[in-house]
């Protein structure tokens, strides 16, 4: 990817610290992910009206919220009335499922194993929104934009033909952008009656090797991303449409 592509990727808007475009990544067949098709971020609930207007002007037409219902209620938002952005609440898992697919994990490898083994249809639902009505520019987010978002983005980029190491490098950028907030989050955790600092420290990370682990798991258990999505109910024609939408100029 060129230096120009790198400089274009991160969007600096007040209220989001982990907002970036996936454009510019090369694919195995010599193409590339188009800018303005698929964005990823932490929760945009602190975005101002100007921020939403900027996203609309950037071309974003769908916001896919992967958070649990309780997270949506606690930090809810809606695009401004004059915005052309549509909101899609599509939890990867709900508050009841949280008890079995998130809470037991003590580190990211355990967390991603639980996510991938239990949440396939939810990932498919998110990917289908991207290609609805022929495809529309989408922003995908969860709470901080690295775990649920990271796996959703990884699946999409994999189907488009982006190399695994490139996807893992993209994922690892989240730690760079989120790290300044870690001390505050750790201090907040200490005030909780059920504080678990060790678990939080483990889960705050987003290193290249964590995504490599998830990619290896997909290969070992599901015959790769395509096999995983097929197993979760996504049709080959839908995956073809996703790749075309992400890469066609």
Automatic annotation (TrEMBL):
<protein>
    <submittedName>
        <fullName>Tyrosine-protein phosphatase</fullName>
        <ecNumber>3.1.3.48</ecNumber>
    </submittedName>
</protein>
<dbReference type="GO" id="GO:0004725">
    <property type="term" value="F:protein tyrosine phosphatase activity"/>
</dbReference>
<dbReference type="InterPro" id="IPR000387">
    <property type="entry name" value="Tyr_Pase_dom"/>
</dbReference>
<dbReference type="InterPro" id="IPR029021">
    <property type="entry name" value="Prot-tyrosine_phosphatase-like"/>
</dbReference>
<dbReference type="Pfam" id="PF13350">
    <property type="entry name" value="Y_phosphatase3"/>
</dbReference>
<feature type="domain" description="Tyrosine specific protein phosphatases">
    <location>
        <begin position="121"/>
        <end position="157"/>
    </location>
</feature>
<keyword id="KW-0378">Hydrolase</keyword>
<dbReference type="InterPro" id="IPR016130">
    <property type="entry name" value="Tyr_Pase_AS"/>
</dbReference>
<dbReference type="InterPro" id="IPR026893">
    <property type="entry name" value="Tyr/Ser_Pase_IphP-type"/>
</dbReference>
């Amino acid at each position: 990817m060129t230096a120009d592509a790198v400089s274009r990727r991160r969007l600096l808007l007040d209220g989001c610290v982990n907002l970036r475009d996936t454009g510019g990544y090369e694919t195995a067949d010599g193409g590339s992910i188009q800018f303005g098709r698929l964005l990823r971020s932490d929760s945009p609930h602190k975005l101002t009206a100007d921020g939403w207007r900027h996203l609309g002007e950037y071309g974003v037409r769908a916001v896919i919220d992967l958070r649990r219902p309780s997270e949506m209620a606690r930090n809810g938002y809606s695009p401004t009335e004059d915005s052309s952005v549509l909101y899609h609440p599509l939890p990867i898992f709900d508050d009841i499922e949280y008890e079995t697919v998130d809470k037991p994990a003590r580190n990211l490898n355990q967390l991603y194993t639980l996510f991938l083994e239990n949440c396939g249809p939810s990932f498919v639902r998110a990917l289908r929104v991207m290609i609805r009505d022929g495809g529309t520019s989408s922003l995908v987010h969860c709470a901080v934009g690295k775990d649920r978002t990271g796996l959703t983005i990884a699946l999409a980029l994999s189907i488009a033909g982006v190399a695994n190491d490139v996807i893992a490098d993209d994922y690892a950028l989240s730690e760079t952008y989120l790290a300044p907030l870690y001390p505050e989050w750790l201090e907040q955790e200490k005030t909780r009656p059920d504080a678990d600092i060790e678990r939080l420290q483990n889960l705050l990370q987003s290193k290249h090797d964590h995504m490599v682990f998830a990619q290896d798991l997909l290969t070992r258990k599901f015959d790769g991303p395509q096999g995983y999505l097929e197993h979760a109910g996504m049709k080959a024609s839908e995956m073809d449409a996703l790749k075309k939408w992400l890469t066609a100029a």
